[in-house]
Amino acid sequence: MAVIVKSVDMEQVADAVGYKGTYVGLKKHGMTFVVTPSMLKVAKDGEVIAKHSIKAETLKAIAKGNGLWADKKWLKDTLNALYVEHVKGQETPKAPPAQAAPSSAMDKLKALSQGHAAGEPKDEAPASPEPDMPPTATPQAGSWSVLTVDQAMKASLAHLRDSNKLYQPVHGSDKASCYAVVALSEQLKAAARVKNDQLSLRLEGPALGAPDTAEKLGSTVLVKKKGPEGYASMHLAIPNDDIGRKALGALLMGLGWSFDTPLPDFDIVKQISTKDGKA
């Protein structure tokens, strides 16, 4: 049985990345956050619905305003995606009662004060908080499907440029290899493979045909072929999984591209990479 680290205050961690209201809303809708020495798990009704390999000490560091940017990004993306799927998606909007427009400055002050009537706390998060970020920055994770490891292992390989699911198995240059989709957008898609202590990243999509995109990505990956079937790739030696996890997040962030999906789970990518590319 995994050891649960109770000294990590997840509300404080969420507050440190600007998502306290979202965290409170998830807790009120039955989400539980379990911290072990090397993992953060999010569960609902006893079922784990999200997990991330991250040390408890790292979460403590984030709570104090420190920590890696990639870990903070994963945390924000995950909290927001969970809120959109499990909270916002299940709510039935209620129309507010009709109110007459304030006719004077005094009436406006009275109207504002009604939101803080006796017995109603002023600083507590609302029962159904909005994500603590501008609407325009909400990840489009809901528009892309996410495969489980079991689904991915049973699925046929596709071309990365035609993929539409996170963790979908796709072809690399070597038809015997299998990559897992790790980032999606309409113009650019990314897949990764973990094999023989090496992390490989592959990019495909219409954006590779644009000169400015190829120049922008040139510092991170090698654009090997342009046009509709063009691709870019890079390979990096990773001595262990901890380095691999950090490297995958750093590479995706280093591209400087705005993907619609949250940072992927390295362990899932590693499992899917064992799939036979010819199957």
Architecture overview:
The protein is of the alpha+beta class. It folds into two domains: 10-88, no CATH class; 147-272, Yope Regulator, Chain: A (2-Layer Sandwich), CATH 3.30.1460. The chain has nine helices and eleven strands. The protein has helices at 10-16, 20-28, 56-63, 69-86, 105-113, 149-154, 211-217, 241-254, 266-272, and strands at residues 31-36, 39-44, 47-52, 145-146, 165-166, 169-171, 178-183, 189-195, 198-204, 222-225, 231-237. The strands form three sheets. A six-stranded antiparallel sheet has the order 6-7-8-9-11-10. The radius of gyration is 22 Å and the shape is globular. Residues 100-142 have low confidence and may be disordered.
CATH C-level of the largest domain: Alpha Beta
Distance between the ends = 36 Å
The rounded Rg comes to: 22 Å
Taking the sheet with the most strands, its summary is: 6 strands, antiparallel
How many beta strands in the DSSP annotation? 11
Low-pLDDT segments, ≥5 res: 100-142
Q: What would the principal axes of the Cα set say about the shape?
A: globular
Multimeric state of these chains? single chain
CATH topology term of the largest domain: Yope Regulator, Chain: A
> How much strand?
15-25%
Give the tally of structural domains: 2
Order of helices and strands: HHEEEHHHEHEEEEEHEEHH
Broad structural category: alpha+beta
Task: Give me the number of helical elements.
Answer: 9
